[in-house]
Design a protein that fits this description.
mainly beta, single chain
């Protein structure tokens, strides 16, 4: 593999309901198998570790605050601000890792996602920075597609 064939972590996009949305940072793309430790009677040197369920963190999205209303922001506001009066709408959300010429190299699809947190960075008069909008999504599971 030539050095120019490696995937870079800064060229990506999020797809939500047909819209391509740019973010500064996307975190939480991982999955872990939990284990239960079992002590064997009379054996003090070790514990058996048996697999149980897989878990994953929430998907974290960060970007500079944009003034226009998007489908994603409207979905967040409707899901969180409404409490449980309205049923929560789940959607599939995809993250594409892009290569040269914006060709999709890898795709993660997060199934049955819904927003659980919508926040903004702190406002500080002594700093000259952008206001960052943060969105956390819970989801059931994700699938990985390798496209090259």
């Amino acid at each position: 593999m030539a050095s120019n064939d490696y995937a870079v972590s800064f060229y990506f996009e999020l797809l939500f309901k047909g819209d391509k949305i740019d973010f500064q940072e996307i975190s939480g793309i991982s999955e872990e198998l939990n284990v239960e430790e079992i002590v064997s009677g009379g054996e003090n040197r070790f514990k058996y570790k048996l697999p149980t369920t897989s878990t994953h963190p929430n998907l974290g999205l960060k970007r500079a605050l944009v003034p226009e209303n998007s489908k994603l922001v409207t979905w967040c506001k409707n899901s969180i601000a409404g409490g449980l009066i309205n049923s929560i709408e789940t959607n599939d959300v995809s993250v594409n890792l892009l290569g040269a010429n914006a060709v999709v190299r890898m795709k993660w699809t997060f199934h049955n996602a819904y927003p659980i947190k919508y926040s903004f960075s702190d406002l500080k008069s002594q700093e000259n920075g952008l206001v960052i909008e943060s969105i956390d999504l819970a989801y059931t599971y994700f699938e990985i597609s390798s496209i090259q």
